[in-house]
Amino acid sequence: MFTGIVEELGEVVAVENLGDSSRFQLRGPVVTDGAKHGDSIAVNGVCLTVVDTSDGTFTADVMAETLSRSSLGALTAGSRVNLERPMALGGRLGGHLVQGHVDGTGTIIERTPAEHWEIVKIALPAELSRYVVDKGSITVDGVSLTVVEAGDDYFTISLIPTTLALTTLGLKKAGDPVNLEVDVLAKYVERLLGGRGIEEPVA
């Protein structure tokens, strides 16, 4: 379980194509401190399992399902990524409950700078729109954010200077894809009320 509070702006060191999967090597001295084989690290909001660590880097295997359901398949050596370790039990929940299971991808439509922040409009897949509400929570590339406006096929978020400086959201431009994870509580409520949920998210 994660909180969507990015700990580190990391970097892809190498991507090895293994046919039906890929092996990523990523640099992140903060998130690899004390990390070991089998631990979890969220990369742009996708929960990945650590295969190995060495000198501030870690490797992780990414299966075909994850590559097809998220934007990780577009990463190359040199790409910047948002990194977060799992939440420690008893710690503060700074963002909201995030599983690291991507529900789909969106596309940045436009960015509107303001004096001290920036409004970003993101295209929203139709099957996810019912889970997104004004002032609700959503995770974009692993960053816990509050929805400013929820439309039928889009939503907007407001990015403060800290988010712009310390995450990949400050680097993204119109047309770029982003990973989306909606609030899991909304999906549970829908299920309990007998509604039809979305397809199983990326594990």
Keywords:
203 residues; mainly beta; six-stranded antiparallel β-barrel; six-stranded antiparallel beta barrel; 3 helices; 10% helix; 40% strand; globular
Molecular structure report:
- It contains 3 helices and 12 strands, in the order E-E-E-E-E-H-E-E-E-E-E-E-H-E-H.
- The mean pLDDT is 91.
- A hairpin with a 3-residue loop joins strand 1 (8-17) and strand 2 (21-27).
- The radius of gyration is 16 Å and the shape is globular.
- The longest helix has 9 residues, at 184-192.
- Helices cover 10% and strands 40% of the residues.
- It has a 6-stranded antiparallel beta barrel.
- With 203 residues, the chain is mainly β.
Number of strands: 12
| Helix segment tally | 3
By secondary-structure content and strand pairing, the structural class works out as mainly beta
Low-confidence stretches: none
The helicity comes to 10-25%
What is the CA-based Rg, rounded?
16 Å
Cα end-to-end separation: 12 Å
Estimate what percentage of residues fall within beta strands.
35-45%
> What can be said about the biggest beta sheet?
6 strands, antiparallel, barrel
The oligomerization state is single chain
How is this fold's topology laid out?
Elements: E1 8-17, E2 21-27, E3 40-43, E4 46-54, E5 57-63, H1 64-69, E6 80-84, E7 104-113, E8 118-123, E9 137-140, E10 143-150, E11 154-159, H2 161-166, E12 177-182, H3 184-192
Antiparallel strand pairs: 1-2, 1-6, 2-5, 3-4, 3-6, 4-5, 7-8, 7-12, 8-11, 9-10, 9-12, 10-11
